[in-house]
Amino acid sequence: MKMEDEVPVIDLAGTQDDAGLKSVGAQIAKACEEWGFFQIINHGVDLSLMDRIQEAYREFFYLPPEEKQKYLVDDQFQGWCCPEMSGHARVKKIGLITPETCEYMYHDVLYGDPDRQNLVPPNPPALRATVLEYATQVRALQERVLAALSQELGLEADALRRLFAPADVGIRANFYPLKTDDNTVGVLPAHSDAPVFTFLLADKVPGLEIRRHGRWMQVEPLQNAFIVNVADCLEVVSNGRFKSVEHKGGGNEGRERISIGAFYNPARAATIGPVAQLLDESSRRPRYGSARFADLQDQLVAKGVHGKRYVEALKIPVEGS
Ligand SMILES: O=C(O)CCC(=O)C(=O)O
Ligand SMILES: [Fe+2]
Q1: Half-sphere exposure (Cβ direction) of 162: Cα atoms closer than 13 Å
Q2: 178-209 residue pLDDT tens
Q3: pTM of structure
Q4: Which of the listed residues 174, 198, 227 should we mutate to test ligand 1's pocket, taking the one with most ligand atoms within 8 A of CB?
Q5: Which domains does the chain have, with CATH numbers?
Q6: Most CB within 10 Å of its CB: which of 88, 153, 223, 244?
Q7: Domain Fe2OG dioxygenase: where (predicted)?
Q8: 12-29: per-residue pLDDT in tens?
């Protein structure tokens, strides 16, 4: 396989200070432009925490269905679901699950409202605190990467962070159990992610595929790395310079797989549109309109995840074409 056929790997060792961060900014920006995907190593998130969160979710997914059903997904997208529940009225209403999709659990965990944090199940006992600790560490890392990207765009280091503030982190754990003869493992169908970017703690077992030049390619997860992808809001604010790329998740025959995505979610009130300075400086026309993040997210909840439908809807057609 040629080198350019691998998702770029970016080493964040020694990038704790501003100068260090600047030194990798160009690599990160290039990966966001050319791939929309990259892996980061030596990122500083506690490796034992990465193991613990996988174990805590595994324990949750192993609980009996009656227990998991106590946390069935609500109309705000929060909670657990599995393909067997796709006929349930509440699940049907949010339209995200079909008999073919994988089992998963999603929560927005860092909103100021402690009641929402309490939505993360108390069973297994370590889950809630682990998810909170993990989201806090990952958000700090995400904000370092965001600062590097801001500077590469010619903006102040905290410009993008302020635009999205106060950001939340949504944690989605996907469970692809072992395949048995009479039972197919669900998949996560092709989609782009709506928020700014996603940091995926991928299982050692591969199963993530990304669309690249019209073909699907599998990503080989590096141990202890995060697989990062540009999501729709970052594509829009960068006026299309950074690309949100379609991807899909699946299991791996003969091996169980758990993937945990941490979505950097803008505040619901944040307006998502091309950043004005980027247009002024180069007199480039805006390629996207603007929308409140809440509206994008509500559409997603109401209509389900399909390809790049939401970012496409914001695109402004080129006149005369
Ligand atoms: O399971 C995977 O690798 C894909 C996860 C994903 O794309 C998501 O949770 O949005
Ligand atoms: Fe995704």
Answers
A1: 7
A2: 876 656 678 898 989 989 999 999 999 999 99
A3: 0.93
A4: 174
A5: 3-314 (2.60.120.330)
A6: 244
A7: 166-266
A8: 999 888 788 888 999 999
